Amino acid sequence: MKRRLFAIASAAANVVGLLGLAMFLLQAVLLLDYRWSIGCTHETWHTPGDIGYHGNDGIVIAGIGSYVFSEREQHPVPADGQTWFPPELDSLESAGAPPQFTVSGTKELKNCTILGTGYRHSVRDGQDWRGQYHLIVANPLVMLGVYGLISLIPLRLFVLRLKDRRRSKAGLCPRCGYDLRATPDRCPECGTPVPSGTHP
């Protein structure tokens, strides 16, 4: 049972590590050319009456940083009923930058960032329309470090597995490295049982 759980955990760690390596390489490429970016956004419009409710959530990875954003806006419908926005919409599209960067008239309420990494919250409370904007931003160098550490997980597991095999072949306990020649079935030092067939 323990071996099976360890195998599942190792496989999951390998997948996470490979994803971390892929993200590390992607961030490194984007850092080399600030003009590149990759991302997606889920945009919705819902107009049940005289107010158009706009939602926009997404993620962007760019050379200048990584962003997770969420915005909620309320746009009044004009008296003639002619709106500049679609009454109903639910779409998933690519995104190049968080949309709230281009919103005018916003006021920042919270800015909890260190070294360009953290959380920002701003609002727009104009007579024409209102909005709430949330942004999680990460410095690209910070993300490189995080992705790099994640990508080392499979390497660490591989080194541990290699160490266990070498110990087993040398007649040592795979857990603590104690000499098992006198007691080949169980380690007298740490009590770890040694499966049959693993002795040299």
Explain what you see.
The chain is an alpha+beta fold and 200 residues long. The chain has a domain at 36-142. Helices cover 30% and strands 34% of the residues. It has 3 helices and 7 strands, in the order H-E-E-E-E-E-E-E-H-H. Helix 1 packs antiparallel against helix 2. The two termini are 25 Å apart. The mean pLDDT is 82.
Descriptive key words:
seven-stranded antiparallel sheet, alpha+beta, 7 strands, 200 residues, elongated, 3 helices
Number of strands: 7
The pLDDT mean sits at: 82
Shape: elongated
Helical content (DSSP H or I, runs of 4+): 25-40%
Q: Any idea what the radius of gyration is? A: 27 Å
**What percent strand?**
25-35%
Q: How would you describe the oligomerization state of the chains in this entry?
A: single chain
Secondary structural class: alpha+beta
Spatial order of strands in the largest sheet:
4-1-2-3-7-6-5
**Ends: how far apart?**
25 Å
Question: Counting H and I runs of at least 4 residues, what is the number of helices?
Answer: 3
Order of helices and strands: HEEEEEEEHH
- Main sheet attributes: strand count, strand direction, barrel closure: 7 strands, antiparallel
Give start-end ranges of low-pLDDT stretches.
none
Describe the structure concisely.
The chain is an alpha+beta fold.
Task: Spell out the blueprint of helices and strands.
Blueprint: H1 2-32, E1 37-46, E2 51-62, E3 65-76, E4 88-94, E5 107-114, E6 117-125, E7 130-138, H2 140-151, H3 153-169
Helix pairs in contact: 1-2
